[in-house]
Write a structure and sequence with these properties.
Layout lengths: L4 H10 L1 H22 L8 E5 L6 H4 L1 H9 L3 E7 L17 E4 L4 H18 L3 E4 L5 H10 L3 E6 L14 E4 L6 H13 L26 H16 L5 H4 L6 E5 L13 H14 L4 E4 L6 H10 L5 E3 L9 H7 L2 E5 L2 H5 L6 E6 L4 H4 L5 E5 L22 H4 L3 H12 L12
Parallel strand pairs: 1-2, 1-4, 2-3, 4-5, 5-6, 7-8, 7-10, 8-9, 10-11, 11-12
Helix pairs in contact: 2-6, 4-7, 8-12, 10-11, 10-16
Length: 425
């Protein structure tokens, strides 16, 4: 059990603003005194990335982390303990370099935060890159690290989102370019030998964003294949389908995290999608994926689908087995959530449904097609509102119709899986 998202937001605002105001003078004084006695090294040597709450961001920041390694620095990563498994998919960060904060309750949060700050000082981290969009908590972590280079997003002349004077390298957050490019601009600022106002005055090209692919062994694929065949043998599918591995194998991810529940396409729409698709592709098998906690949610989708070729696969594989599952599958349909990004480290063709957020900023970097209704009110969440919307009726998701998704499935099933597409538009 973790602290509720809205509770975290309230704490971040009510406690974060005064703490930033209180600690900013001391951080600035420390920086000034240090500048009198020593000069910074020519380039970062130990870089800590901070991204606590979004598992998908561990994938989106990977090109920036690899650029940091390419420039000769060691990298570390700070993340909520419940999300650290997301770093195991690409293994860019050595496991011993992953620091965690326990958000299971207020007391564990405070204790683990103090321990992490002590660890940061012990490691002699010289550069901290705050990836979060204007979180006061991560700003305080960045400032209290007292690293020589502290890089993060700054509001400049914008109103609200004030985070004090915790940064030495304040980067302009650009809401008009993909988040992976925004992350790359932070790395540029960290390694810059001159001050820019604002950072970062560089052109980041699409080809600069290169996403690594997951390394999956034959043994891992075989284990997942066996699990699929076992579930298939226990299902109501026809005997002919049970005798061979499904072709095509289509994954359905109907849920989304509690961080933004408005991203969910209605469960009934997913059920209808399976019903229509199973008629169009009678030889296909549909696996409804999700975490063990989402098993009942997946079951409800399955129960309403008019198809015998559907399996509740929620909780059937470990998180670290997802790349193997994605390599075995032919296609996935998902809400805008972690799986849309996790699949991008494999060739899996993926359809991602967007509503409160935009694919222009958060589109998958893999072989994917985003579907976005583009209503006048969406995207309604952004860095400017801490990704919190007043919406209780996600018409932007309801506007996406089953035939649109079927059309996208047709397009992707006919596209060779080695034709990778990065959607920045």
């Amino acid at each position: 059990m973790t602290i509720r998202v809205d509770t975290m937001r309230r704490i971040d605002h009510l406690a974060g603003v005064p703490l930033c105001a209180l600690l900013s003078p001391f951080v600035l004084l420390f920086d000034w005194l240090r500048s009198l006695v020593s000069q910074p090294s020519s380039s970062p040597k130990k870089v800590l990335f901070i991204e606590l709450s979004e598992m998908g961001s561990a994938i989106l920041v990977d090109p920036a982390m690899r650029e940091t390694i390419k420039r000769g620095a060691q990298i570390y990563f700070l993340i909520f303990k419940s999300n650290q498994v997301s770093l195991e998919l690409l293994k860019t960060v050595p496991s011993q370099h992953v620091l965690t904060i326990d958000a299971s309750g207020l007391v564990p949060l405070i204790i683990s935060t103090l321990k992490v700050l002590w660890k940061i000082h012990q490691l002699k981290i010289d550069t901290v890159i705050d990836l979060e969009l204007f979180s006061r908590f991560t700003a305080l972590l960045t400032g209290c690290s007292l690293a020589r280079r502290r890089v993060g997003y700054h509001i400049y002349h914008g109103e609200g989102l004030w985070r004090g004077k915790m940064l030495t390298h304040a980067v302009h957050y650009n809401p008009h370019i993909h988040i992976s490019k925004n992350f790359m601009s932070l790395v540029h600022a960290a390694f810059s030998s001159t001050q820019e106002l604002p950072f970062s005055k560089i052109l980041i090209k699409d080809e600069d964003i290169v996403l690594a692919q997951a390394q999956v062994s034959d043994e891992q694929r075989d284990l997942v294949r066996q699990r699929i065949m076992q579930c298939l043998s226990e299902s109501n599918a026809s005997d002919s389908l049970k005798s061979t591995f499904p072709n095509p194998l289509i994954l359905i991810n109907p849920n989304a995290s509690d961080l933004l529940p408005q991203r969910r396409w209605a469960p009934s729409r997913f059920s209808d999608l399976i019903s229509v698709a199973s008629q169009k592709w009678p030889e296909a098998v549909f696996l409804i994926t999700g975490s063990p906690e989402e098993k009942q949610y997946a079951q409800n989708v399955m129960n309403d689908a008019k198809s015998s070729n559907v399996i509740n696969f929620a909780g059937q594989v470990k998180f670290t087995q997802l790349p193997a599952l994605y390599q075995l599958a032919d296609l996935m349909v998902t809400n805008d959530s972690g799986p849309g990004h996790f699949s991008s480290i494999t060739p899996l063709a993926t359809i991602v449904l967007f509503g409160p957020e935009t694919p222009a900023l958060y589109g998958s970097l893999g072989n994917s097609i985003p579907i976005f209704a583009g209503l006048a009110c969406s995207p309604c969440v952004s860095a400017a509102n801490h990704r919190k919307t007043p919406c209780i009726d996600n018409v932007c998701m309801q506007a996406i119709q089953v035939p649109q998704v079927i059309s996208a499935i047709e397009k992707l099933l006919d596209t060779p899986t080695n034709e990778m597409v990065i959607n920045f538009e």
